Amino acid sequence: MEMTIIADDQRVLLRNVSWEAYASLAQNSDRAGRLITYDQGLMEIMSPSKMHESDKSMLGRMVEMFSLEREIDIASSASTTFQRNDLQRAFEADESYYIENELLIRTKREIDLAIDPPPDLVIEIEVTRSAINKLPLLAAMGVPEVWRYDGKTIWIGRREGDHYEAIDRSEVLAGFPIEQAEEILAACGTASETTLIRRFVAGLKTL
Question: Secondary structure of 180-206 in the HEC alphabet?
Fold first, then answer.
C-alpha cells in the first residue's frame, strides 16, 4: 500500500486498497469528521480545514434558504456514505441533496444505491484539489449535477454519460443565483454567518 499526503485540508491518498478494507474503515465510528472517497483501489481520507467547513456550510445554507423561499421540496443527504459495490466506488460529499427525487427517498432512513437513486445535487469544496478526480466517479454513480467551489467561483457540471459538461445555471435547482452565492462566500469573515445569510435572502426577494 502506498500513501501520499496533501496539505491544507489534510488529504491522505492510499493506493492498492481493497474494497473490504475500505468498507471496514467506512463503518468505523472513530473516523468521525473525516470524509472518504474510494475509486477502484484508490482511497482518499480528508480531514477538512475550518475554511473548508465554513464554505461548505454557507453554500449549503444558501441552497436550503433558496429552496425555502421558492417552496422547493428538498432532502439533505449531507455527507452520507454512498457506495456501489458493483462499481467498487464510493463517496461522501461535502453537501448533497435530493430535489427531483426528494419524494422517492422521503421516508428512507438509509440509502441503497442498488435500488435508490443517487442525490440530484452534489456540492464539493475544492479550494485544495482532491487527489482523486471525482467527476468520473460521480458520473459513473449517476449523479445528475455537481457544483465545485474553488474559493472564488462555483463551477456547475451536468452529467452527460460518463462525464460532466459545464453549464451556466443549475438545472436541478433552477433559478439559484450563482453570482450572488459567490459574493456571499467571498464575504465570509467580514460579517457573521447570520448576517450574510440574511443578505442572501434579501437578495432573493429582488430577483
Answer: HHHHHHHCECCECHHHHHHHHHHHHCC
